[in-house]
Design a protein that fits this description.
One of its GO terms (cellular component) is membrane. Keywords: 2Fe-2S, Disulfide bond, Iron, Iron-sulfur, Metal-binding. This protein has three helices and ten strands. It is of the alpha+beta class. The chain has two domains: about 35 residues, no CATH class; about 110 residues, Rieske [2Fe-2S] iron-sulphur domain (Rieske Iron-sulfur Protein, 3-layer Sandwich), CATH 2.102.10.10. The strands form two sheets. A six-stranded antiparallel beta sheet has the order 1-10-9-4-3-2. A four-stranded antiparallel beta sheet has the order 5-6-7-8, with no helix packed on it. Strand 9 and strand 10 form a beta hairpin. Bound molecules: FE2/S2 (inorganic) cluster. FE2/S2 (inorganic) cluster binds next to loops.
Length: about 150
Amino acid sequence: MNRREFITWVGVGGIASSLPVALAACSPKSTDSESPASLSRPDGFQSVGTISELSQKGYILNKKISTSGVLVVSQSPDSETITAVNPTCTHRGCTVEWKAQEKSFVCPCHGAKFGADGKVLEEPAQKPLPTYEVKTQGDLILVKANT
Ligand code: FES
């Protein structure tokens, strides 16, 4: 093998051996699989975060769950009462914000207000925010989003 053949042989080998690493780095599954949010279970629930995170931030907005995402809030400081809703305003589709002091979801676009149970408190929205089933397992918050 002459020098030119050797360099070509090493170059091709180097590219071939690094290809699986490059493909894994580009795959969206490689990062999602490390996130607890991507863990779906046989019972249909998915992890959206932790009670520790909820207690610290006051809410968890997870956009990886369902097509519209899930907004999880606690109505008490000790996270005893946890609610999960679809955060997409039913008026024109803005993302609602949780106002802990008022215990309500408020839309920043046109001012619609929803109760912690998703029901409309103030227009212009006419329909409630869809709610999701929630349960906890240890420190994990699990939500069963329909879509
Ligand atoms: S989009 Fe929410 S009130 Fe209009």
